[in-house]
# Entry
Amino acid sequence: MMGHVGTAVWILVFAVTSLLAVSVTTKPPIPAQYQAEAPEVAANWSAERAALGKRLFQERRLSRDGAVACVDCHRPDLAFSDGRVRSLGVGGRVHRRNAPALANIALSGALGWDGRTTVLEEYVLGPIANPIAMDLPVDEAVLRLDADPAYRAAFRAAYGGGPTRERLALALAAYHRTLFSVGAPFDRFVAGDETALDESARRGMALFGGKAECSACHSGVRFTDDAFHSLGVGEDPGRGAITGRDDEIGVFKTPSLRDVARTAPYMHDGSVATLLDVIELYDRGGNPHRNRDPKLKPLGLTAREKDDLVAFMEALSGTLIEGAGPVASASWARR
# Structure
């Protein structure tokens, strides 16, 4: 009898010890300037989980050939875009779309150019299994991680057990939820520093909310309405391929303009090279398309007005941070 009691006590002690070994969780940190737009999320975040997610973000073994990691298409120095017209996946395969920037992704509603999901934990697994991107079944990715004693230990410390599909998604999402851009010249100007914007950027700011009507879609603290519109760019069906709706063919999510000067080239297909080219597209009222947004119309901007709008958008580039500290862009190596 005493033997059974002793065994039960040891099982209880082991269970409590294991529970205490798992990292204490809370809600992810949100910079003060974004808290008004922050969605409600579960309190399942910890710095330890985010650190594991960062390691996984840089892990090339999550691709079939061991040559591609998330960081290759989402570079820290480019607001987590990649500077290519369209990204490269395993074996040099070319994506059909431009890599979206990940800075401030924790604040997004619908995710990706076509808004295919609103759940970050679903979104982060997509590239791993995508045959053009990393081309590795997620279950096989989990097996590779489980074969590594260091990863097994890291997952146990963060989640109380070894690698699983769910924990892989949670860890990657935990890291994504630390990525923000803060303290742009525009933010300093709004906070009272009148020297933060030069005269050109100030004129551009007035145009942005006035004659150019940019704020009709690029609104809020992130400069996006999180909605879907068509500018008549390219032949990609966009959101229409997700919803099956004819009136959403060629429609794409409004990207945030935070750090937009770092994320060229532009549009879902990377077909617009510079910010000035983007403004030229808007100035002519977009391109012909049956679903072109009715708000688009020729603007009649002058050359100086176009330059001023560029100056204002350049003033939306801030300091990229991971949680409480700046992004260490030297911590990755591009292929």
